[in-house]
Amino acid sequence: MGLRQHLPSSASIKSFFGFIHLLLYAEPTWLDKLFLVAGVICAVGAGVPFPLVGIVFGQLVDDLNDATCGDSSIANGGTRDGLQGDINDKILLMVYIAIATLVLIYAHCVCWSLLSQRLAQRVREKYLSSLLRQDIAFFDALESGDVSSRLDGDMQAIETGTSEKVGVFLTCVSFCITAYVIAFIKDAALAGMLVSLIPAFLIMNVVGGHYIQKYSTSMTECFSKASSIASEGLSHIGLVHALGAKGRLEEKFSGYLSGARRGGIQKALATAVQAGLLYFIAFSANALAYWQGSRKIASRVEDGGGGTTVGQTYTVIFILVDGSIVLSQVAPLLPLFGSAVAAFQRLKKDIDNIPTIISTTNSGNRPSAVSGNIRFSDVSFTYPSRPEHSVLNRLSFEAEAGKMTAIVGLSGSGKSTIASLVARFYDPKSGSITLAGYDIRTLNVRQLRGYISLVPQEPSLLDRSILENIAHGLVSSPPHQHLSATLLSDALDQLVSSVRTGMTPDLDKAAAAAGKNVTEIVELARKAAEIADATLFIEKLEYGLATSVGSSGSLISGGQKQRIALARALVRDPAILVLDEATAALDSASERRIQSAIERASAGRTVISIAHRLSTIRNASKIIVMRTDNIIEEGTHEELLGREGPYAEMVRLQTVKPKEEDMSRKPGANNDGEAIEDMVEQSLIGGTEEKGAAKAVEGFGSTDANDDSDSEIPKASTVSTLMPMLRRYLLLLTLAFFAALIVGGTYPAAGAIFGNLLSSLSPCNPVDFIRSRGMLLAGMFFMLACVEFLANFTSWTSFGIIAEKTVYQVRVRSLQQLFSQSLQWHQSSSRTPTGLLGYITNDGNALASFSGSIIGTLFSVVVNFIAAIVLSHILAWRIAIVCLVVVPILLGAGFMQLRSIARFAEKHAGAFSSSIGITVEAVSHIRTVAALSLEELTMHTYKRSLKEPKKEMVVQSLKTNVWLAVANSCGNFIYAFAYWWGSKNILEGKASQTNFFIVLMAMLVSAQLWGQLFTLAPEISRAGRAMSRISGLLSLHLDSDSSHSSGISTPDTDDDLKEKDKDVEAFAEAPRPISPIGASIEFRDVMFSYPARPNIQVLDRLSLSIQPGQFCALVGPSGAGKSTVLALLERFYHPSSGSVFINGFDISRSHNTNWRDDIAYVPQDNVMFSGSIRFNLSLGARPNHNPTQEELEEACNLANVHDVIISLPQGYETDVGSGGSQLSGGQRQRLSIARALVRKPRLLLLDESTSALDAESERALEEGLERARRAGAGNGVTVIAIAHRLRTIAKADVIFMIEGGRVVDQGRHEELVERSESYRINALHQMLA
């Protein structure tokens, strides 16, 4: 039983077939098959010539023996000249063989190089295509960093493991097979003994491969989780700074990374054993061959020279010995093949996953038109990730065609789930949903979604222009199929580029030039933007509709984003419109305009509106009220009010009560408010680019997705950056280099034994001398085998351990550096989360693949090269100095290869990075992609991004592989040259045969190893660039805005990392400006514009003052500058002019941010990080404090979310899913508030903190906040709340009305109702009762 556990599984034996499957995966074209066949034939062919050279060498040895052992007449010129002539003929034959080898090596290198790049491209496309056809349930379980980890790490592993290295491997195998064939022909008995090499190598590879693959998989899984943490942190860097969550996220990141490091070290040990055994087997075989060969030659001499000649025996020994050395060079390649198969299997698992709902298929009913009648019949549903938690229970209702059905109720009661089921993101567990009488499960998914427009609770935009985002709504729209080809092409991309670059600044002229379809799309987008009340702010942007919205819409405010999402939904003129809190981020005036627009647009279409603001649904033909998982009442607004049930109570809760009688009697209170709307619209002009702390939290505004010319961090000295990390491993490093030194020295040692043995086997020597010397030198070879095993094992293990520990440090430090940079840094120079994550994933992987075994191999090859040259010059300088002339050719070929690879990679780095960005973005916004059926569009965009590099791939391969072929075929030319010159010197008596063979062996093996080394040139080149980039990142100075408050110290990092953190903490120490009774806030003439759009003024000489302990509210239209006020209080940015004071302390001039410890921040977008509810709540705690269970429960009770949490099966340990996908919008919002309250802050910043809450939850939350405010930190707390719901802030001590980046009025609710018409109209709009 114990033995069986240690044997490899059947899967490891199948890994060979897995590799074959990989090569033929993803529908290869005839050209790919041609490359494969030609690559295999040429690679196999390239292995044949060298053993043939062995036959010629055997004949040359016989000739030289005849020359040195023959009678003295050989000293005569005539005989010597004849012998030299024979030798020259054989050498000329070797030159022809060398030329054939050069051609074959070049051909197979080009074939495999192109094959691997095309294969990686196909697998990438197939992986992306399979991701896009998965259902939403698949993504609920997917970590956010998984995709970029697969596309960076796994694709790189596949490309590396299927490149020209496969050709080199086949050449080595072909060499060995040819060698055995010739050996059996020449001396069957001796060759038969050496057959034992094959099973030995096979067993070693199968067992070793099994363990390498096992540890490789475990390592990748851990690293995937770590990169997921990094991805989320970088995507929400503003929130990380605001929470002081840097240290806690780094701790979790380094925890997962420790698992990857452990797997890496185990993999290094397995590889080291495999490499050591490989050399041990090869050299042991040499020992056996020499011993048996010496006995056979002795017997032949004893028998009087009959039978096998010395040359024949020499041929057998030479080609099998050399074959074993060549085979030993397969060692660094085996882990690459193993990693490629492991990576392929991980990708294939996702690719082969068959979704329940396939959105890209053409199957299913495709009705030409539908009435829009939707019926739910006994629908029960649970989310696949949480099957034990019922969301809907036997739900039945009907949304009548052409009418508006509203759904209201508590957060988490299943309202948004209904929207997801209508769009068929999920299928119900039981019951049925019908559309116009069809069960939606029988309808074609794309067609179904084409009839439905969904505006989600948290609208997401892709990193394109406003025009392209709105046009996305047309992609699967049945009435707009004639525009499909234009939408899938790059016509719109080129259109916005021409506007932005100034080639054709006028959008209409540019559209007209692009064709009638483009003009129609622009007109449709304009009309939709007008209906969605987005035209005003769009027109004020520098490029209008051609303006980029940034990553996840980060360059525009929440309200502006919601309007564009609404325009995108309306542009397709849908039969069914599903609005899930579609106006939550809008002020009342905007909401009313959009509401009336929606009502106009709703005529004749079915509308399902999910809302918490009851003012938006009072005109609905049916209102459904939900609680927990079912309906508790339904009817019209008036009917439900008359029943005095739960709905009537919700209405009362949302009514702004103070002074409402007076308001109704105010002059102008009953007018349409057109003048007010005009005033509000004008106020938008100044603040249209307000993106706020909430957008800052999303964190990345790229001014142009394709312009990454300035995004590169300046490179720095690799030595100065990496040396401090390596200093603590000095002893291990010394041991590793010492072991590699021994490995390098064993080749010349083998040459010395070989030369001596060959001269000892000469038939000129006595029989006993041949036998005894044969046994002695064979014994020495076995001793060399043992030394090789120990040296290789030690070298590979030591370098592997150092590599894993160093890469661990590099990755942890890289994340620390990225987290330590200010938000302004993150948003400048077109930096994106995906691009910055590349430092940890892509560059980290490049460094990891290079720094282990490859450094050891590189060093041992260099040592061997130097040792061979020195030894050769000592023994036979006349021969060595001539052989040395080929060295510059070898070095030059290697250098040129490295240079051409580096230039290609640098040229197309942006394209590769952009292609991964497209994929990660599609996965991050998969609900948007699915709802709009953008799968095909995403694939087209992805393929276009790689068009340029694909074009140059062929030329690149043809150029680069010339140098690889030269480096690999030099050996044969050196052999021919050396034999000619050596034989000439021996015949002239200027060198001995022994010295000649030592020099020959030492120089030739060096040339072969040197050629093999350049097979690793791409890895060396990639690692060089990665080290340079990482060094540049690590040498950036820590930004004082974010370098303090890192939470708890990162465990399991090295001492020098901790030292650095201590320094940062010391640097940040300064008196805290927060007083014990809350905070006083003052803005003095603050001017501000965002770094991405410096020409647009967001705050214009804004001044306001807040007293300690006050509850202050900021109100005003979307985009007026409210969230920016919070961003400046968190000091995410510096004001252009003016000052921001907290308790008299000017934070805008300060060099530290330790006041953030007393500030809690609830952003507009309720971001949750992957992990448990407990982990997410603990992120809100003060730095260096781990909150207790009691503290967490207290905060959750205040935020009215404790009961929800304990109702979940795992309570506080429940996983929230990627981005909080397992929770409803309201639950996420309450958790976000609880996270802020865990800190017990003295200043609480709330940005639309109740927009996703129902009236009841809002009331309970208000009471909790009131308790927190009165008892916060024991002495009260200052609260600044941004809200569009006036009910939320009606009780505020002071309300500031912000319009156009200025405070236009301030006072209590009652005062503003008296004197401010725009405020009064907002309040009236929200009064229902």
UniProtKB/TrEMBL annotation:
Q: Name one GO molecular function term.
A: ABC-type oligopeptide transporter activity
Cite a single GO BP annotation. Answer: oligopeptide export from mitochondrion
Where does it reside? Membrane
Major location category of this protein: membrane
Is the keyword ATP-binding assigned to this protein? yes
Q: Where is the ABC transmembrane type-1 domain?
A: 37-339, 735-1022
Keyword Membrane in the entry? The reply is yes
Domain ABC transporter: where?
374-653, 1081-1325
Bilayer-crossing residues are: 34-57, 91-115, 166-185, 191-212, 268-291, 311-344, 729-754, 774-793, 846-869, 875-898, 960-982, 994-1017
A Pfam family hit: ABC_membrane
Superkingdom field: Eukaryota
Q: State any GO CC term.
A: mitochondrial inner membrane
How does this chain sit within the bilayer?
A: Multi-pass membrane protein
| Keywords of the record | ATP-binding, Membrane, Nucleotide-binding, Transmembrane, Transmembrane helix, Transport
Q: What residue spans carry the Low complexity bias annotation? A: 1039-1049
Note down the stretches annotated as region Disordered.
1039-1058
InterPro entries associated with the record? AAA+_ATPase, ABC1_TM_dom, ABC1_TM_sf, ABC_transporter-like_ATP-bd, ABC_transporter-like_CS, P-loop_NTPase, Type_1_exporter
The family classification in the record reads: Belongs to the ABC transporter superfamily. ABCB family. Multidrug resistance exporter (TC 3.A.1.201) subfamily.
User: What protein does this entry describe?
Assistant: Leptomycin B resistance protein pmd1
Q: Which organism is it from?
A: Lophiotrema nucula
